[in-house]
Amino acid sequence: MVVELEITDGAALVRYPIALVRGRRPEVADDPGHSPEARFSFDVVDLANELFGPRRSRGAAARRSELTSSSPFSGGRLDIDAARRMASVHRAISALAEACSGGSSSLNALAIRYGTDKWGGLHWYTPHYERHFADLRDEPVRLLEIGIGGYDVDGFGGGSLKMWKRYFRRGLVHGLDIYDKSFLDGTRIRTLRGDQNDPAYLTAIAEEMGPFDIVVDDGSHVGEHQLTSFHALFPHIRPGGFYVIEDLHTSYWPEYGGTDAPVRGSGTALGLLTQLLDGLHYEERGDSGGVPLPGVDDRTVALHVYRNIAFVEKGVNAEGGIPLWTKAPSQSVAAATTAR
Question: What's the superkingdom here (predicted)?
Fold first, then answer.
């Protein structure tokens, strides 16, 4: 396959078609007219900084990327051959992106090894995960990921579960999917079959297998399902843990219960995050009277939002609020303003 590397220097532009073949060193393709599977664009200075500059704690994107391959679905069903082809394309793209970033993230490398889409091709999530999860890497974490991948195809999916198992050396990894993925069950990986839109079921598994340190929602991406899962599972996350919602872009897609209007609807993941941001400041809000939504407002201590992914950090949110007397300007401030 061919991935096009585009490098700009002001108005100057150079394109290199890079041939990527398993087991061989990357090289410039012999056929420059070959249609690329993807395209990466770098400013030459940004690329130099990525390769030779100081190592950063997280990988802020210095590139533009474009995936040009076609959909792996045919007639509403997953075409397994096309899906395998796309998975190969994603692995190649991921490896090239990692090489162009100076090898900045071990989680990137694990994503490439196990074929998860959390790095390369569709998404660029792993640097954000590593930023927030690095301190937990050697802890005996309990992680639940909603959505295992592979749809209803036997023996397909599970790349993320394998990645998490390797990253969290002492962790227990649980995966939930509406399809049977029991072929993945093994040491420190357990799969569950169920509906993320069933709050009673989610509560039952959380009571049995939790509390969790991390919950990752990479399931249906339907707004109603995302909200149901959050409200059922967030109470079962330990203090210091994270609830992660991936693929926030579906909040803009009506097919997933979203809206393309400028203001996100309350029934979407982005609408939920807006509510959580308000709830984070419940002690300062006049409309709530300092009364939190139990288990959510008083247990959300931070929101970390990146493109298409958000981390909700759990803890105790009860700092006491800003004193009410600060609402009125002090006499000295009023006098100084009048004197002007």
Answer: Bacteria
